[in-house]
Specification:
mainly alpha, two-stranded parallel ribbon, 2 strands
């Protein structure tokens, strides 16, 4: 199925947007004539006041704290804070929290584990891949190399072509959203399972956090994030002649995901950075 047909399919279920290889996000192009730029928060993703309270209330066992401190005494406070923030911000399931701490006990470096988790969370990674990526980092590979290898091995997600009438049937269900339809498709593709086996869980009213915990998918999201892009913004960056419209939109998506400005990401793209290198450098900036 070509990209134009994919776009028409997504439009049909009110998901006006695209699905990108590294991280999944919907976007809409807005022509409001105002020339206003999308509001992108610079730096790390914003943390809300309720999340701050949850971070402060997050408990880590003394055994794990001692191991983290012994591994890197100088950065102990920062590493613990980063770990708690990730648990809250990504709404990490208990089963995957246990996996993270199991790797800590085995001697894996906490910042490496957190970077691997961030990347896998973006890609609906599978249980077991966390250890694999952290082990690759311990072997001396760079995060850019690791991310590129993962992306190549997993390929690019493309939405499926549903049977006529099937989407209409799903949309008629009061507890099913367009995001549920897309998330179920991504998970079914990742696990190579029948779509009906995945969407039935949501039809039964089970949250994606619980579903993914059972299926071994490192994600808790219930909806796909959105980023708005104006036609004026597209034309502004296209005028340089170095980036296509798809690349410009990709830059906005990456900026939203990483808490950067679109200009920062576009400048990196113009300098020849791959998506994997951009993610790798931003994650390292966050955790190292």
């Amino acid at each position: 199925m070509n990209r134009k047909k994919v776009s028409r399919l997504i439009m049909a279920i009110m998901l006006i947007g695209i699905v990108l290889q590294t991280g999944f996000i919907s976007y809409s192009i807005i022509d409001n004539g105002t020339g206003e730029e999308a509001q992108i928060t610079e730096g790390a993703p914003m943390i809300s006041e309720p999340e701050i309270r949850d971070i402060n209330n997050t408990k880590i066992s003394q055994e794990i704290l001692d191991i983290i401190k012994e591994a890197d005494t100088a950065n102990f406070e920062r590493n613990v804070s980063s770990y708690k923030k990730l648990l809250v911000r990504l709404n990490v399931q208990e089963v995957f929290k246990n996996e993270i701490e199991g790797l800590v006990k085995e001697g894996h470096i906490l910042p490496d584990i957190l970077i691997a988790y961030e990347f896998l969370n973006e890609n609906f990674g599978k249980q077991g891949e966390l250890e694999a990526l952290s082990t690759e980092k311990q072997s001396g590979k760079t995060w850019t190399q690791i991310f590129k290898t993962y992306s190549t091995a997993n390929g690019e997600f493309m939405p499926r072509a549903f049977e006529p009438g099937y989407l209409e049937m799903l949309m008629a269900e009061t507890n099913i959203t367009p995001d549920d339809i897309m998330i179920a498709d991504i998970i079914a593709d990742k696990l190579q399972r029948d779509y009906d086996q995945i969407i039935i869980e949501r039809l039964d009213g089970i949250s994606w956090k619980e579903v993914n915990g059972k299926l071994g998918i490192l994600s808790s999201i219930n909806y796909l994030p959105r980023v708005q892009v104006t036609n004026e913004q597209i034309e502004k960056y296209k005028s340089s002649g170095t980036l296509t419209e798809d690349k410009i939109v990709d830059a906005f998506v990456i900026a939203e995901k990483l808490g950067k400005t679109e200009k920062e990401i576009i400048d990196k793209m113009k300098a020849g950075y791959s998506r994997e290198r951009i993610y790798a450098e931003c994650y390292q900036e966050r955790y190292y």
